[in-house]
Write a structure and sequence with these properties.
CATH class: Alpha Beta
Number of helices: 6
CATH superfamily: Metallo-dependent phosphatases
Oligomer: single chain
Shape: globular
Number of domains: 1
Distance between the termini: 12 Å
Helix content: 10-25%
Radius of gyration: 17 Å
Length: 273
């Protein structure tokens, strides 16, 4: 199976990159399933129902989020009605929405998406390791789930790497989101799980992690209160990971970075016959 997971979409520039590149990638890479992290899509903070629909129309099958999931208050009432929009699974019991989803590809294969959020330097949520283990009690890779994907949203690479090793062999991929900076550690772990510490953002890299430079720099240099940060508006880079899995075992055959447009060096995998 061919899978694409797109890193945090930031603001209008990031949304435009999704609309510009995702439909073509869906065809060029013969993608069976696409996950988009949309937690910064609404002017840098959260996501709206309209943005969700635009991503689905562009080719996304599932949207993940993160610590900014509730920034747009209307999403609180919407999220329960959209099974394709996930929030982190380790919010307290009773929180609206869901952090695990079962989905079916066009060919009838079952894909499970699990979406924990880290705790180091993040909000003090429930244990993401316990949450991921609980989610996997229902699924066996290669048996009742052809693919299992984990979007681990967090700051610390150590925490993400630890979860990758804990889940190695039991899921198809563990990829990180949140830092907005793509890492160069994409590889397949010994047990067959594709891993990458952070996908990077889909946004304008002539910025400070997607936000306009002047206000962000002023915060660091003056330590004085500033206005609300605003997303940079230049041509964005779409950052993602392409993952190819074995149709029998569900394990990863390869993981490769995808970078298109904007300021970062271009990178796109070659489709294998």
């Amino acid at each position: 199976m061919n899978i694409l997971i797109v890193g945090d979409v930031v603001g209008k520039a990031g949304r435009e990159a999704v609309m510009e590149y995702l439909p073509g990638l869906r065809e060029q890479l013969a993608l069976d399933f696409v996950v988009v992290n949309g937690e910064n899509a609404a002017h840098g903070f959260g996501i709206t129902d309209r943005i969700c629909q635009s991503f689905y129309q562009a080719g996304a099958d599932v949207i993940t989020t993160g610590n900014h999931v509730w920034d747009q208050r209307d999403i609180i009432n919407y999220i329960g009605s959209d099974p394709k929009l996930l929030r982190p699974l380790n919010f307290p019991e009773g929180t609206p929405g869901r952090g695990v989803g079962e989905f079916e590809t066009a060919t009838g294969s079952k894909v499970v998406v699990i979406h924990p959020m880290c705790r180091l330097f993040m909000d003090p949520l429930d244990d993401p390791f316990v949450g991921a283990e609980a989610a996997l009690e229902k699924y066996i890779l290669g048996s009742n789930a052809q693919v299992i994907l984990v979007d681990i949203h967090g700051e610390a690479t150590s925490e993400k790497q630890a979860l990758g090793h804990v889940l190695d062999g039991r899921v198809s991929a563990v990829v990180g989101t949140h830092t907005h900076v793509p890492t160069a550690d994409h590889h397949v772990l010994p047990g067959g799980t594709a891993y990458m510490s952070d996908l990077g953002m889909t946004g304008d890299y002539d910025s400070v992690i997607g936000m306009k430079k002047k206000a962000a720099i002023s915060r660091f240099m003056t330590k004085m209160p500033q206005g609300r940060l605003e997303p940079a508006e230049g041509h964005a880079t779409l950052c993602a990971a392409f993952i190819e899995t074995d149709d029998t075992t569900g394990h990863a055959r390869r993981i490769e970075p995808v970078r298109l447009g904007g300021r970062l060096s271009a990178s796109k995998p070659v489709k294998r016959c």
